[in-house]
Write a structure and sequence with these properties.
With 255 residues, this protein is an alpha/beta fold. It folds into two domains: 4-77 and 154-251, P-loop containing nucleotide triphosphate hydrolases (Rossmann fold, 3-Layer(aba) Sandwich), CATH 3.40.50.300; 86-151, no CATH class. The protein is 34% helix and 25% strand. It has seven helices and ten strands. A six-stranded mixed β-sheet has the order 6-7-8-3-9-10, sandwiched between helices.
Length: 255
């Protein structure tokens, strides 16, 4: 049985007095512990789907459920990692304080958890630094550690490495694979990058161009973890998916 399920979901926005559908009759299933990636052109509604699962917005029609319960509002059991490396962090708190901010436990237990995740994301030695003293990759590690420490059932990731340089992005992709292998969290990840989708995902869902977007192709990536982005096997999958996604990108009006 699916752990995350979107059934006949439509989402419309009112624009100049008329209702404009962003996604229509959208269906999605993600199993518990699965790493699913949404891949699609700009404007197809990938981030909106994450927001629907998070409970930040409600569908115009259809249902969104997690663990057999309909999503009606946000919950700490559905953690979101954002694209921005600065906005999600509290600039007046240290690395350690940022990671422990959302924990509702005793001080002793909090210390143990924070230390555990500082080690897991390789921030040892930066515990007492403020965000202004950290690189972009380090800030994103803080955000990852904070969400993971809260132990949500679902992790929603909206292009979290998009603003990082190529080398840091590759390092973060490897670290995310390591974290997922250790914890087997259920992850729904959004990206524009075919390579990133193949490197990270067990299942890649290619979306059609919006409006009225839906899932065009579901591809299973039958490769062992961790994955190397320059491996022959990864490149083969990237080539296989490229035409599918490029066909949708060509449908997006040029501005």
């Amino acid at each position: 049985m699916a752990f995350i399920e979107l059934t006949d979901v439509s989402l419309s926005y009112d624009t100049k007095g008329s209702s404009e559908p962003e996604i229509e009759q959208f269906n999605l299933t993600v199993e518990q512990g699965e790493f699913a990636v949404l891949l699609g052109p700009s404007g197809c509604g990938k981030s909106s789907i994450l927001n629907l699962i998070a409970g930040f917005i409600r569908p115009t029609s259809g249902t969104v459920s997690v663990d057999d319960e309909q999503v009606r509002e946000p919950s700490p059991q559905r953690g979101m990692v954002f694209q921005s490396v600065d906005a999600p962090l509290f600039h007046w708190l240290t690395t350690k304080q940022n990671i422990g901010f959302g924990l509702r436990t005793s001080q002793a237990e909090k210390e143990v958890l924070v230390e555990k995740y500082i080690r897991m994301v390789h921030l040892t030695g930066s515990e007492h630094k403020y965000p202004s003293e950290l690189s972009g990759g380090m800030k994103q590690r803080v955000q990852l550690a904070r969400i993971w420490a809260m132990d949500p059932a679902v992790l929603l990731m909206d292009e979290p490495f998009a603003n990082l340089d190529a080398i840091t992005k590759e390092i973060m992709q490897q670290e995310l694979q390591d974290l997922w292998l250790q914890t087997k969290k259920t992850i729904v990840y959004v990206t524009h990058s075919i390579e990133e989708a193949v490197v990270l995902g067990q299942k890649v869902l290619i979306m059609t161009a919006g409006p009225r977007a839906h899932v065009k192709t579901e591809a299973r990536i039958a490769l062992d973890y961790p994955r190397d982005p320059v491996s022959v096997d990864v490149i083969r999958y990237v080539r296989a998916l490229r035409e599918d996604i490029n066909e949708e990108v060509r449908k997006v009006p040029r501005r």
